[in-house]
Every structure is written in C-alpha cells, then in structure tokens.
Amino acid sequence: MLKEERLQAILSQVELHNRVLLTDIAEKLDVSIDTARRDVKELDKENKLRKVHGGAISLGFTTDSTRNANIYALSEKMVIAEKAVKLLKNEGVIFIDGGTTCMELARSIPPELKLTCFTMSLPVAMELNTKPNVEVIFIGGKISKEGQVAIGANATNALSQIRVDYGFIGTGYVDAIEGLTDFDWDIVQVKKAIMQASKKTILLCISQKLNSRHRYKTCDMNAISTMITELTPDDDQLKLFRNNNVHLI
C-alpha cells in the first residue's frame, strides 16, 4: 500500500470511529506500530486529526458549541438527529451520550421543548445549556481526555441513582450478531450503566458503522429498544438487524 493510501485509510478510520488505537491501525494496514505512529504524527502535523497517547482522535471532538466543520458524515448525523428529536416529549427526562451524533441530537432540540437532560459529555452539556427550557444535569467523574466524557466509578454510581425515559447512546462498533462493542473498557462500563438507567435505550448510529466489531462487548442487539440510522427502515443493509426485535427508524 502506498503511503498516500495508508494515510487516507487511517484518516477514514479515525473519522468513522472518532478514536482509533495505533495497534488497530498497524493490524488493519499490516504495518509496524512505529510506522503507524509516524503516519499519525504526520496527519496531526497537517491538522487532519489529533494524536493522543496510543492512538488518534477525530477533530470533530470539541468542547466548542459551534459546529465543527470537520465532523465526519455530518449530513447523515443530522438526519439521525432529526429522527431522534421526534421521540422527545414535553417534560420528558432523558439521557444523551457523548459523541458527534449525540451532539447533533442536542443541537436539534427545539428551544420551546421542556426537558430534563442528563449527560456525562462536556460538549453535549455545553450545547444543552444553550437551550432555554432544558434543565441540564451533568454526571461527573474522571474525564476522558479523548472522549471528553465522565468515566469511572463516580459516573457509574451516579447513573445507578437515576431513571430516564430514553437513553440516547452512540457506539463505536455495532454488529447484528455481536451487538455493540468498543475497545475502551471504561466507556463500555458507562454505557452499560446508561442502559440500566434507561426505560428505553435508543442507539444513534450511522450506517457505515454497521457490521463492525471490537474487543469489549457493551450489549446484545436485543438489549436496544430502537436503532436510528440515516437509512429507511426497509433498507437492505438493515436486514439482519430486523431479526433482533429492534425497532428501526
């Protein structure tokens, strides 16, 4: 593989999953860790991603409430947010996860809608705070520098004390057979706690993440009440997911 092709492949993976590990890059591209590290440093220098310890994250991760022009598949995420916001009811109590798709949901909440919204995401909390009729409750804990979300025992314990109507979550990887997975153990534990705190769990996921998997399991597909993608529910790409009793929107 030519270097230019390798750099584009790395960038595509970072944009799709928001965060990737050097070990995954090396394995996927069949190169050494040192080569993967050099490539990531070069892309960071070109301001195409941000190098972090052990990997890289997308430039779409930002605490600025202004929409970042680097958000991957923004139009698809906006479609998902438009679908998700239709589920919200006045005076509802919800949870919104971290990540760029969930951020679009936060942006899409109408200013007149009255909600109580829990979140452990710093960017989502900042965006929700601009909504005049949304009461924002931040779930605190150790802050993940890469994901800008609260993780750890304090966060999971706080989540065990609440109950919300809908828990809107994102995922790095989703597969009809394997379910939701990720490579970050701490993030997986927080997502499990969110699901326990939610009467219904709503997965927000762009179609490019379908049929992908990683090492740590969050849940089986049948633990999800509803999955929202930018596709129509009858799209062939969702055929296997229809066999899991998951409501598709």
Describe it:
The structure is a single chain. The chain is an alpha/beta fold. The protein has 2 domains: 3-57, Arc Repressor Mutant, subunit A; 74-248, Rossmann fold (3-Layer(aba) Sandwich), CATH 3.40.50. The chain has 8 helices and 15 strands. The strands form 4 sheets. It has a 7-stranded parallel sheet with strand order 6-5-4-9-12-14-15, sandwiched between helices. The chain has a 3-stranded antiparallel sheet with strand order 1-3-2.
Oligomer: single chain
Gyration radius, to the nearest Å?
A: 18 Å
| Corresponding CATH architecture of the largest domain | 3-Layer(aba) Sandwich
Secondary-structure-based class equals: alpha/beta
| Series of H and E elements | HEHHEEHEHEHEEEHEEEHEEEE
* Biggest pleated sheet: 7 strands, parallel
Per the CATH scheme, the topology name of the largest domain is Rossmann fold
Strand content: 15-25%
Question: What is the strand arrangement across the widest sheet?
Answer: 6-5-4-9-12-14-15
DSSP E strands, number: 15
Overall mean pLDDT: 92
- Kindly, what is the distance between the CA atoms of the first and last residues, rounded to a whole number of angstroms? 39 Å
**Spatial shape:** globular
Low-confidence stretches: none
